[in-house]
Amino acid sequence: MDNFLLIFLSLLISINVSAQLNQVNYDEKEVPEYKLPELLISKSGRKIKNTKRWEKIRRPEILKLFEQEIYGKVPQTISISEVNVHEETTDIFDGLATRTQVELVFRKDDQELGVNVLLYLPKDTAKVPVFVGYNFKGNHAINDDPDILLTDSWVPDNPSLGIVHNQVTEQSRGVSNERWPIEEILKSGYGIVTAYYGDVDPDRDNFQDGIHPFTYRLGQFRPGNDEWGAVSAWAWGLSRIMDYLETVPTIDASKVVVFGHSRLGKTALWAAAKDQRFAMCISNNSGCLGAALSRRQFGETIGKITSTFPHWFCENLNKYSAREELLPVDQHMLLGLIAPRPLYVTSATADLWADPKGEFLSASEAGKVYALYEKEGLPVAEMPEPNSPVMGTIGYHIRKGKHNITAYDWKQFIRFAEKHFAPVIAIE
Questions:
Q1: Which residues form the signal peptide (predicted)?
Q2: What is the DSSP-derived secondary structure letter of residue 209?
Q3: What is 68-420's CATH topology?
Q4: Active-site residue, selected from the candidate residues 262, 286, 294, 364
Q5: Measured between alpha carbons, how far is 417 from 409 in angstroms, rounded to an integer?
Q6: CA 413 to chain centre
Q7: CA-CA distance, 73 to 65, in Å (whole number)?
Q8: Pick the catalytic residue: 42, 239, 321, 403?
Q9: Catalytic status, residue 140
Q10: Burial level of 307, CB count in 10 A (0-12/13-18/19+)?
């Protein structure tokens, strides 16, 4: 009878969790009451009142919790083995810019992985600041330039865009150009650096390709419970691109802005939290386990992510599916890890899946860490109206429209960078 009761209770819990996973809340009245974990109180109960305590005590504690419970730690150090320059062209966009295509090669035993990086830099300008971030379909997709190399990595099928059997074709060239206003960025005096995120780790629940197998022990076929999921692997890749950028004499490595949209916005935030060489971070529509507070359970939730994209995060995250209140951290703490560097968070009015209010509240809470550095966090207490950006050391806007990255977003990114970096000479 006892065994029957245990089985029955277990079944009830399973049914209840399953029902919660199938529900999506878009009603503020249905947001549960929640209490956020303390940002400025250590595990031992010590109050964090200055930057010294933050950097020595609380920041490492929080970073470790995110590694163990959400993103997963990188098991080994893997460095660039070789840099192959595929092309250097000095006259792009009618003499406005240079274009460089390089391959970062990683080797271990009999394994080899190549990550193709595309750089556009303003011409005849020394030490330029740059935006660096991944693209979703290959470097060739961000512009219709026929000389950009087609990716040979695995890409999710989309026959309407010319992606068949997980391989791109010429038809897919330039299909994402609306998200990449390259000429406008260059004319503002900034460079743009991108790579296809699938070069580092294909976006599928596989773990047999990409960078993950480089760290496997004999007989291991997937990461351990607290080891890196795909987001952590992609963030690792951004840091390796940063390694390369530090060697480029025409780039100001002290002014590298890491950015990302959607799942790549989650990636940019984790990369900036882990790697303090990134001077600024921009998170565009990153939502759950990006900028938005998990405890609000609004739109996308941890349960939805772990059931739909189980490879994105470490196995330990499954413990918090439909149990967000048990998390030892929340996303305001991730944003706090980026302090005192400038941070810009964005939302969109029709992107309720990413929980715009949760993104704003998270950014607002993170300001407590910025205050330790005597930096202004968000300059407003209430969520601004659509298309009304606010910019302290933390900036935020909610744009009218859908889940996307647009020319409007890019204009604000450039404005925010101009606010915090020394003036960059715009190119006429």
A1: none
A2: S
A3: Rossmann fold (3.40.50)
A4: 262
A5: 12
A6: 15
A7: 10
A8: 403
A9: no
A10: middle
* List of residues 6+ apart from 231 with CB closer than 8 A: 71, 263, 266, 267, 270, 289, 312, 313
Q: Does an H or E element contain 91, and which?
A: strand 82-92
Instruction: Enter the tokens of residue 278.
Output: 């990134």
- For the record, the structure tokens of 267 come out as 């990636």
Taking the C-alpha atoms of residue 409 and residue 347, their distance in angstroms, rounded to an integer, is: 10
Instruction: Indicate whether 44 pLDDT > 80.
Output: yes
Length of the chain: 428
Confidence bin at 238 (pLDDT 50/70/90)? very high
pLDDT for 23 equals 85
Q: Please, are residues 410 and 89 in contact by the beta-carbon 8 Å criterion? A: no
Torsion sign over Cα 20, 21, 22, 27: positive
Check: CB of residue 202 under 8 Å from CB of residue 154: yes
Query: What pLDDT is stored for residue 425 in this prediction?
Result: 62
**For 330-367, b where at least 16 C-beta lie within 10 A, e where not — what string?**
bbbbbbbbbbebbbbbbbbeebbbbbbbbbbbbbbbbb
- Whether 388 is catalytic: no
CB 38 within 8 A of CB 336: no
Tens digits of residue pLDDT in 159-182: 999 999 999 999 999 999 999 999
| pLDDT reported for residue 125 | 82
* Domain ranges across the chain: 68-420
Give me 56's structure tokens: 């020595």
**Looking at residue 353, what DSSP letter applies?**
G
The neighbour count for residue 421, using CB atoms within 10 Å, is 18
Q: Which of 305, 313, 332, 354 is nearest to 231 (CA)?
A: 313
Rg (CA), the chain: 22
Q: Which residue, among 152, 151, 140, has the nearest Cα to 99 in the 3D structure?
A: 140
Structure tokens at 256: 């590298």
Beta bridge mates, 83: 104
Strand partners, 280: 257
